[in-house]
What does this fold into?
Amino acid sequence: MTVSMTGFAARKGQGAGHNWSWDIRSVNGKGLDLRLRLPDWIDGLEIALRAELSRALQRGNVSLSLKVARDGAAEGAVTLRLNPATLSAVLSALAQIEGAAMAAGVTLGQPTSADVLAARGVIDANSADTDPAPIRTAILADLPALLSDFQAMRAAEGAALNSVIAAQLDKITDLTAAADTEATARRDAAPTTLRDALAKVLANAEGVDETRLAQELALIAVKIDVTEELDRLRAHIDAARALLNDPGQVGRKFDFLTQEFMREANTLCSKSQSLALTRIGLDLKTVIDQMREQVQNVE
It folds into this structure.
């Protein structure tokens, strides 16, 4: 049921006297970041596309690119037409600028035709005598098919992620069991170890408060007990497996859970007082960190 934030889809369409090609791709992100590259002459298209994408997607850095051409034109070709009103306004402004410069005794270079054409709005691309409503409607009608392909790839990537994360959880389960075994063995030997330590201290010290010393040793025994950490690790494993089977958007919850996994592994290492248990804790941290990298791609 896991869905990945990584995906790609491309599609070509035709309608309303035009043909188009577009693609959509995404990578992981903390929220939903939409970046659209669209023909600016199709009024209302960006607003409609953003609304549809926001309904379909929850998280990810998503880029959508759309190219539109008239039927009969080569793919990617652009029909250029002058906008007479804008051209007149630009030429009038240039004349005013030249007049003001002459009055101030400033000599300006003459603008070229390319300079004039570069002014915003002088050239309309694909827009002259074109009603954008039919082409906008046709493009929006083609969007569900593009999103279907896109979501299918994200679902396929999610299935692969699910398998990887499940395998990592199996490793964490095995390491937690190994840590429990090692901690149990250490706990069984702890009373003897503490008594031997206490005997050595008492044999080499005078005037020691035996009761206070026994209390301090008992506190040490409590501080090195990792039962709670192991119990929480097992609870986190159960929670992670439940998230893998959750049909909703679980990426944020899973990311937080991996932080809790790492917190318990760190505490286990700090309280280990055992080379074998420390090694298990370090292995746990390695697998948890690897799992966290995978979880970063879950929507």
About this structure: The longest helix spans residues 132-203. Strands lie at 7-15, 18-27, 32-37, 60-70, 80-82, 123-125. The CA atoms of residues 15 and 138 lie 6 Å apart. The chain has three domains: 7-73+131-151, 80-125, 157-295.
